[in-house]
Amino acid sequence: MFYLRLARGYRVSDLGRWLLTTLAAGLVAAFLLRSLGRAMSDPHGGADPLVRLLWCLPPLVAVAWFAAVAARSVPARRPARIAGLTAAGAGSGRIRALIAGEVALACTLGSVLTLLLFLVLRNDIAGPSLAPDLGMGVPLPAAAPVTLLALVPLTSGIAAACAVPHPAAMPGARVHDRTGFAAWRIALPVGLVVIGAALELIALRPGAAEDGRPIHLPAGLGSTSTAALGGWAASALGLALLTGPLLGWTGRLLALGRPTPLRLLAGRGLTAQARRLGPPLAVLTLVLAVVLTTIRYWIGTPDSADALPAVEACLVLGCAAAAVVARLAEVRTDRRAVTGALLRLGTSPRLLVGAVALRTLAVGTTLLLTGGATAALAAAGLR
Amino acid sequence: MPAAPPDNDVLWARGIVKSHDGTPALRGISIGVREGEVLAVTGPRGSGKSTLLGCLSAQLPVDEGEVWFNSAPVHTLGRTGRERLRRDRFGFVGSEPHLVPELTARENVALPLLLAGAGHKAAYTAAGEWLERLDVGDAARHRPDRLVQSQRQRIAVARALAPLPPVVFADDPTAPLHREAADQVLRILTSAARSHQLTLVLATHDPELVRFADRAVALVDGRLTAPAAPVPRGAAAPGTAGASAVTATRR
């Protein structure tokens, strides 16, 4: 009932978040139910059921990631709601639980809708092509779908609750972002990138053809060698972790020397926000690099494309992009006071827009570099 | 067309009416601010002080009435014109420092000068000098989040004074400060205004601080209650003592 009342006060961005969470959760539920249906149709499928369940993992993680980032943005974007709840006697723990409950509710709604569709389709409506996916003709044990479908709201809800920091769930509390990165936060990713690149070089050395390619990749990507896969994984992780520090350095570079107000505001702003913008942008870049490399491989190799990975890629990409949008909205709301102060000083909005454009250009260039490197390493490993 | 405002009034408003989403804030205020004077606007919370300062400083458009600055209408200006006026002619200190968090204290103070087109070196030198004058020279290289509130507020005052604008608006600038720091900040504000012939419009809820002003008007529920009552200049004369401390030349 409480959530219904809350929903009445929702604006487009909140409704969009709800709708997207519901839709994504519904799709993940569809993946889970499909693996269940397959397992029911073919109880002696060997290792396949596990692989099919593993296929559900990336979308599940993607939905949880989006839920976490979106939940993290709620206290900053809706301070009035937090203040109201606190005035009504809710502590920071309960506020976190309420935010998590909202996410879980949206996920449950999506899952239940998918389950209904699944049950309706099982009722002899679907054609024979879908029969093995739905486990038609086999009695459905009630516990199985319920267990599987509880997974989505549970993971998303827990992720959302963990994402909201305790101090942020109190009204008027400003979570001060520390700028700059600890030494290990730079050393670790640099080390990973170096090790990954070295492994990749070993895999690509002239005599590497005799090594064999023992690892079979999913999504019709053929097979690859251990060194190539390990090297790519290490360097991709390193590049993703390095995105935040790189953004900070890009900001410093922008404001280097004797900066004009435009460069000063753009550069310093980017350095200050690098810690917050880094993770969602890194995830989006990584996902984009993987998806684009896969598409390139599919185009180059006939009959390798697959429908299921394509749908999954769309879902993961959508969640990663939505997480970036949520984080941008959070940063923007957080900076409303600063923007107001700058405008009061007589800063022209054109200058502020220019600073944002310059910042976007710098971020785009940095991400193009990290994403390009990730994609190039992946493409090299696939060859 | 109305009659032109009096010549010696640098700011002049007649019958300004302003409401925030239907809640009336100002109900017909006429006020004149003479060049070089320190005018205090007193009144309790919610009496419309901030709105009046917002209207006079070209931040808020008025619903009705007129605002003139140096015999030029402000109420007819578009957004760009108001921005230019705020940037080139007005300084503003609010009750919160509202500094740009990612810039150092010196960059914060230099920012309005840079925005007005001053050279890099000139802007940073002036910023450093003003920070010294406000006793926050040590904080020049620190970002606001590493400073205490009184230091941040002084930086905000330095930011408003550094370009030496003809008119400085101070909207309850001492709200976040302790008594002692508040007195010092106000003394520096008023002495800087007097030594550079700046006009200072000071809104405050504290009737005691009126002693820093040449003249005071009281605001209650969006109306001026008392006519501009002159404060005897010799009563406290905080400016005369501190004026020599502030010796920057006007650009």
TrEMBL record, chain A:
The keyword Isomerase does not apply. The chain crosses the membrane at residues 51-71, 103-122, 142-165, 186-204, 232-256, 277-298, 310-330, 351-380. Keywords: Membrane, Transmembrane, Transmembrane helix. It comes from the Bacteria. This is Integral membrane protein. It comes from Streptomyces sp. Y1.
Automatic annotation (TrEMBL), chain B:
Keywords: ATP-binding, Nucleotide-binding. One of its GO terms (molecular function) is ATP hydrolysis activity. Coiled coil: none annotated. SUPFAM superfamilies: P-loop containing nucleoside triphosphate hydrolases. The keyword Methyltransferase does not apply. The keyword Transport does not apply. Residues 11-246 form the ABC transporter domain. Residues 229-251 are annotated as: Disordered. InterPro entries: AAA+_ATPase, ABC_transporter-like_ATP-bd, ABC_transpr_LolD-like, P-loop_NTPase. Pfam families: ABC_tran. One of its GO terms (cellular component) is plasma membrane. Belongs to the ABC transporter superfamily. This is ABC transporter ATP-binding protein.
